[in-house]
Amino acid sequence: MSKLLETCSIEEVCSALGGNEKLLVDLRERLQDWLRLQPHLPQDVPEARLQYFLIGAKLSLEQAKQKLDMYYTVRRLVPELFAERDPLSPAITTLQDVLQWVCLPKLTTEKYRVSILRAIDDDAAKFIPWNFFKYTFMIGDIRVSECRSLGDIYIYDLSAMRLGHLTKLTPTILKKCEVAATKAYGARIKGIHFINAPSFADRIVTLIKSTIKPKLSSRVHVHSSGLDSLYEFVPRSVLPKDYGGEQPSMDKLSDMWREKLEEWRPWFIEQQNVHVDESRRPGPAISGDDLFGFSGSFRKLDVD
User: Fold this and answer.
1) Which residues pair with residue 152 across a beta bridge?
2) For the chain, what are the domain ranges?
3) Distance CA 214, CA 26 (A)
4) Strand partners, 103
5) Residue 116 CB burial class (10 angstroms; 0-12, 13-18, ≥19)
6) 51-92 pLDDT, tens per residue?
7) What is the C-alpha separation between 265 and 284, in angstroms, rounded?
């Protein structure tokens, strides 16, 4: 199957980050050299993934080291997200009949990737948050290898969401997912948009803002009366037909992602037990309390 996603060229990414391809290659080689000295980390990391961490770190070698280490660390610390990721497992196939999570094929003019969540079954009893977030990180792993962008925009269609969905989103779940997304996957969140918002949307926004810093809070928007205000942030040219756009429908895109995940099934199964080995880490081991701060108050996250 061909690649689903438009991608930035290496030249575009490097230029946006104030560097060039020669610098990226040099940093990648230095990151590879550093990796060889880390006995606690897997050693067979493809060049494309090393470049991904450097780009996510804005070409900072030290930050790329931290993200690469964290990528394999969260795999061990958050099994709810990174264990049992067979795309044909009941947890995933059942989820696909309840929710659609779609990364859109086209980038915005700013080279941002847009992703949309839409529930297709309003029965909150069928909503299992960990399975949903596991699914999003599976797609994230494919993106690590198959595309490059300069940021992410998330759109949440709340038309079929009920209060029962909200009550399942605990601060612990949101915190672990936020840490994994920003510190391990290097997500650079440029906008969070809620559309078709019900009366309880303010509770969702309050819950999300409770785990993020003010800089990101300012990028959270609720569109309660039509989509015209959304188009000010996301052009119709990248949106599915369902939202007045020019791209294939959500159903079609969701089916395409289902096929893509099945194509990647051998990789997900192979990676099942690939994570950090804390017994071999130079220096102190990293625990969940160290990373998520659950022994004290939640620590809010910085964003780019």
Assistant:
1) 113, 189
2) 1-304
3) 35
4) 115
5) buried
6) 999 999 999 999 999 999 999 999 999 999 999 999 999 999
7) 34
List, in sequence order, every residue forming a beta bridge with 247; answer none if it has no partner: 240
Nearest alpha-carbon partner for 83 in 280, 289, 269: 269
Check: CB of residue 209 under 8 Å from CB of residue 202.
no
259-303 pLDDT per residue, tens: 999 999 999 999 988 999 999 999 888 888 878 874 433 344 444
* CB contact at 8 A, 127 and 98: yes
222: region left, alpha or beta (phi > 0 left; psi from -120 to 50 alpha): beta
The token duo for 74 is 């969260």
Residue with tokens 């941002």, as numbered in its chain: 112
Q: Are 186 and 56 in contact (CB under 8 A)?
A: yes
Paired tokens of 174: 């949101």
What is the rounded distance in angstroms from the CA atom of residue 176 to the CA atom of residue 136?
A: 13
- Contacts for 224 with CB less than 8 Å, ≥ 6 apart: 197, 201
Identify the H or E element spanning 105. none
> Domain 1-304 carries which CATH code?
3.40.525.10
